[in-house]
Amino acid sequence: MKNVYLPITVDHIARVEGKGGVEIVVGDDGVKEVKLNIIEGPRFFEAITLGKKLDEALAIYPRICSFCSAAHKLTAVEAAEKAVGFTPREEIQALREVLYIGDMIESHALHLYLLVLPDYMGYSSPLKMVDEYKKEIGIALELKNLGSWMMDELGSRAIHQENAVLGGFGKLPDKSVLEDMKRRLKEALPKAEYTFELFAKLEQYEEVEGPITHIAVKPRNGVYGIYGDYLKASDGMEFPSEEYKEHIKEFVVEHSFAKHSHYHGKPFMVGAISRVVNNADTLYGRAKELYESHKDLLRPTNPFANNLAQALELVYFTERAIDLIDEALAKWPIRPRDEVEIRDGFGVSTTEAPRGVLVYALKVENGRVSYADIITPTAFNFAQMEQHVRMMAEKHYNDDPEKLKLLAEMVVRAYDPCISCSVHVVRL
Amino acid sequence: MSEKKIRIGFYALTSCYGCQLQFAMMDEILQLIPNAEIVCWYMLERDSKEVEPVDIAFIEGSVSTEEEVELVKEVREKSKIVVAVGACATQGGVQSWTDKPLDELWKTVYGDGKVKFQPRMAKPVEEYIKVDYRLYGCPPEKRDFLYAIGTFLVGSWPEDIDYPVCLECRLRGNTCVLIERGEPCLGPITRAGCDARCPAFNVACIGCRGAIGYDVAWFDSLAKTFKEKGYTKEEIIERMKIFNAHNPKLEEMVNKIFQEVKE
After folding, report:
1. N or C: which end of chain A has fewer CB within 10 A?
2. From the list B44, B239, B242, which residue is nearest A127 (CB)?
3. B115–A254 CB contact, under 8 Å
């Protein structure tokens, strides 16, 4: 007699950015199929901005995603500046990186404390943890507020920054605000370190242990960070950002409004753990020490290590922002903006968004966008994510479905997916 | 107010999730929690229930799939007050900034690829259901949320804003981005409430809170500067469409700005 198996499904994965579900199909021989259904509607960003004025297109790209709007804004601006042949001054670049770090701190704090931690502590929502975990929620809010405030001051607001423009900034904060920012970053450092110690204690499930190919931006100037002009893979390969399409292929899958990606025909991972794995030699300061003492936990073979890698980055980027502010202050007073001549051209920017490699390729003709290609970290990750959910399902498909559902969701959450970001990916 | 907790639902359609994030990032939310029951809020609550009755339903995002049409209808049936939150829910969002048909957009982004879900052209929530109140902005300001929820909690009704960003900008004493820099700042014709956030950074307003109502007196004064600065009607319409693509009066409004002044 043939057994009948009902698919194990989570229709709407909670505590991630965007709308997606998991479907696990089980048969007589075990797990037959695992699908991440991405049901968030498509928004066609690249198609919409074709033929639009460059500055207006730049105003809407950050709207792709709220959790990493500064990342989208700054990557789009860099691609546009490369396209028209403009290079920002060093101090402007430093302050843009501080703005980007604001996004990194806010996003990591939100993800770790509000989205991930409740699973480990046995809660359905961080709002229910307020009484029992007062200290942790307090730290989450403090780090998150620090990141948002940095974006308010340098970007005009924490979500959808308008202040980063072609040629620099519309306006820069007073020197006293930057001094204050340094002070608050220094105060946040022990809290970032507490976060690292807390996440170092959390289980990294061995069910999903195995080799992973990691891709990250190779840091510009050899210092661990956000910007870079080459992509680096953990198999030793390096290639210029402009050649991303020769190595990474995108394709449409029928169960998702988001496309999938393969590197040389195979799934791969991007994110904090990929940055740490590929670029650990460029870390410095307290984060370097923590990396050395926790290397076994920050290993390349487990997606759950991404949570701890984000915590490591909270420490790193808090220190790094202080140094970048000092670099800018050394050149004070700073002119916020240079005039940019809008010439025709093509530019590619690759940066490290909180969730991993973000690619913008823009072509400008007659002051308007004539080609746009945007690939987001989550789109890069989907294929690898599906494989890891499958590994988890293969170990637990005979267990209580509720247990498997939670574990599958935890795998997805470890990637810190940004589903809104991923549902507009383009090929032209 | 009765002892009964207020039941709140936060529902997401197609969007960037920034409105919810703005709401989640308010420390004030901790004061609301003891008086509220979060029935549905997938971004933070794993035990969310999409089909349970609520007192206030916040809907973020544009209606962009067949499934979302069904969802908004269901939310309407189960909710006492429906609040459309943000530019996508109130105006269709930046994803509406196009005249191209759906199949052309689809082909540009997905090629010949097929997906088992049904997409639709992005539309505001109000195209499908009755909406009781609107929070404008991309994203709305924190004070928009506080004002609306606070007013509902005391059993009253929040007011709409009927004056432009320019008013707040003048009060802050900013240099005028339109007059001084000659940039196409939409402040004169955009609903206020943001305290002129972008012009305060010397950045031209892109109109994320939507056009102010047609009959507001301010509308044709400073707005006429567009013409003086050499912008064409088409340029201003294109810029306004970023956040007003579904506004049926858009052309009429811009025509009014560009008509000959009768002295």
Report:
1. N
2. B44
3. yes
My answer on whether B108 and B185 are in the same domain is no
Cis peptide before B139 (omega within 30 of 0): yes
The full DSSP string for A274-318 is HHHHHHGGG--HHHHHHHHHTTTTS-TT-TTHHHHHHHHHHHHHH
A424 touches chain B (CB under 8 A): yes
Instruction: Pick from B11, B19, B21 the residue to mutate for testing the A interface (most A CBs within 10 Å).
Output: B21
This complex has an ipTM of 0.92
Contact B186, B220 (CB under 8 A): no
**A164-165 vs A238-240, strand pairing mode:** unpaired
Question: What pLDDT score was predicted for residue B38?
Answer: 92
- Same domain, yes or no: B126 and B240: no
Q: Answer yes or no: is B76 within a domain.
A: yes
CB A123 within 8 A of CB A137: no
Tell me the average pLDDT across A136-158: 96
3-state secondary structure of B62: strand
Within-domain flag for B158:
no
Q: Which of A15, A158, A162 sits opposite B201 (nearest CB)?
A: A162
Note whether B33 and B124 are same-domain residues.
yes
Query: What whole-number distance in Å separates Cα of residue B202 and Cα of residue B36?
Result: 40
Residue B133 maps to a domain: yes
* B211 in the same domain as B101: no
More confident residue, B167 or A256: B167
Asked whether residue B227 falls in the same domain as residue B125, the answer is no
Predicted pLDDT at A422: 62
**Domain count of chain B?**
2
Q: What is the pLDDT of residues B27-49, one digit of tens each?
A: 888 888 888 999 999 888 888 99
Of the candidates A16, A69, A427, which has its C-beta nearest B111's C-beta?
Answer: A427
Structure tokens at A161: 């920054």
Closest-CA distance of chain B to residue A340, Å:
14
- Within this chain, do residues B178 and B230 fall inside the same structural domain, yes or no? yes
- Residue B262 C-alpha, separation from nearest chain A C-alpha, in angstroms: 33
Q: How far apart are CA A161 and CA A251, in angstroms?
A: 31
Task: Indicate whether B194 and B90 sit together in one domain.
Answer: no
Residue B233's domain spans which residues? 165-258
- Mean pLDDT in chain B? 89
pTM assigned to the model:
0.94
**Of the residues B127, B153, B179, the one at which a domain ends:** B153
Give the number of other Cβ atoms within 10 Å of residue B137's Cβ.
Answer: 25
Task: Find how far residue A348's CA is from the centre of its chain.
Answer: 18
* DSSP assignment letter at A207: G
Question: Least CB-CB distance to A66: which of B119, B139, B197?
Answer: B139
**Residues of chain B found within 8 Å of residue A376, distances taken between Cβ atoms:** none
CATH number of the structural domain A45-422: 1.10.645.10
B-facing residues of A in 312-351 (CB < 8 A) are: 336
The answer to whether residue B40 sits within a structural domain is yes
